[in-house]
Amino acid sequence: MADDATLDLVLRKARNHGAWLDKPVTNDQLRQIWALAITGPTSANCSPARIVFVRSQKDKERLRPALSAGNTDKTMAAPVTAIIGYDTRFYELLPRIFPRNPAASEWFVGKADFAGITAFRNGTLQGAYFIIAARAIGLDCGAMSGFDNALVDAEFFPDGRVKSNFLCNLGYGDPSKLPAPVPRISFEEACTLL
Question: What's the confidence (pLDDT) of residue 11?
Fold first, then answer.
């Protein structure tokens, strides 16, 4: 079982940051995040998550028009903004990444709705793994959904194959700018024991 320090780092004391220290995030750190996140389970190992790491001011300007007013400044200031997307044709890789059933891609061919739901569900799951992985290597995250998906998709995924899901700013958060923690709902409010 993970010790208390690890649980605090990745979940219990981790916060969603919106202000960033002037400290860079390296390519090696981004590779470490992926190496951890990709190990989490997805159905039939479908692994539909696709990530664009937006780092330069020039590329942040491409992202700016899609951001809601409340997310613009924090995104422009973040060292890295990850566009967490999902590949709607993930199944084309299944013969290689799910070798126990080389015909698994046939479950999805010609079934765009089923493939889309599978891609979105598992891509979202991988996005959660991504956040935990980033925190595990010592980075802070600022996940958000306040943006125009259609604009992001047109700018960063113009062929239509990959769709954006959410954005996640990465870096070293400024703890002095964190608001007070917000309440969470209780086990009794959210869970049913049968």
Answer: 96
Q: Phi, psi at residue 52, to the nearest 5°?
A: -110, 120
pLDDT at res. 67 = 98
Helix 27-37 with 112-136: angle, nearest 10 deg: 120
> CA of 16: how far to CAs of 63, 111, 132, 139, 143, in Å?
20, 36, 12, 11, 7
Q: How many Cβ atoms are within 10 Å of 97's Cβ, its own excluded?
A: 13
Q: Which helix (DSSP H) or strand (DSSP E) does residue 69 occupy?
A: helix 69-77
Reduced 3-state DSSP string for 81-111? EEEEEEECCHHHHHHHHCCCCCCHHHHCCCC
What whole-number distance in Å separates Cα of residue 2 and Cα of residue 168?
25
For residue 169, give the H/E element and its range. strand 162-171
CA distances, 192 to each of 97, 145, 187, 189 (Å): 36, 28, 8, 8
**Which amino acid is present at 73?**
D
> Over the chain, what is the mean pLDDT?
97
- Output the pTM of the full model: 0.96
pLDDT in tens, 37-56: 999 999 999 999 999 999 99
Say which residue the tokens 């259609």 belong to. 150
CA-CA distance, 127 to 132, in Å (whole number)? 9
Gap between the Cα atoms of 21 and 74, Å rounded = 11
- Long-range contacts of 95-99, Cβ-Cβ distance < 8 Å, separation of 24 or more: 97/45, 97/46, 97/47, 98/44, 98/45, 98/46
